[in-house]
Design goal:
Elements: E1 21-27, E2 33-40, E3 43-46, E4 60-61, E5 64-68, E6 72-82, E7 91-101, E8 107-114, E9 118-125, E10 137-140, E11 145-148, E12 165-169, E13 178-180, E14 192-196, E15 202-206
Parallel strand pairs: 1-10
Antiparallel strand pairs: 1-2, 2-3, 3-4, 5-6, 6-7, 7-8, 8-9, 9-13, 11-12, 12-13, 14-15
Length: 211
Amino acid sequence: MDLSTVDKSIGKEPSYQNKPAYALLVFGPEAKTRVWLAQDGEKIYVDRNANGDLTEPGEKIDPTKIRPGSSYRDQKYPIGAITPADKSGPHTEFEITAYGENNGPWNYVLKLKYNGKIQQFAGWKALFKESPQKAPVLHFGGPLFAQPIRYATFSLKEKNPELHLRFATHGVGEFSSVSLGYEAIPRDVEPVALIEWPGSKTETVKLLSRC
């Protein structure tokens, strides 16, 4: 799926109180369902039914303040369910957490259950951009790839070598990948990694822990 071709038009927008910023969520293997997010100061508009209209009742979300401190602050946006008009979904338990340090810009973490079943996460960095055309595209329920995390290299020369992976879906824009929550993999399923060592030797190892 070429996400660079996704339609970035918005059907109808509210009268914003501040300069808005945008992010676009797409859902499904073919990314046909589009859900716009628009940030207006501390408010976030969410196109809950994916019809391109951000002015409908219940789509303006105010934050639940948690810690408004000066060195570290965070707040949550309890959104709930996304129920697309195209009858896909619903995508449930949608929540956005915003956090910042030392009066810096807000960073955002998005989490939801795709089709009400598969836990996915995105963000951990600044998310919203100043126009719809520059908005990142985050793909939920798309094709997965395996990506090493935490350590740039894996070597048996290390005292306690560890291999850390996440399963994610590519997006468009910086920090736009969507991760699969470890809860989405049943406990009776044990993922394995096939390692190709220098000299053509291969080894299959189980991925034993989840976090």
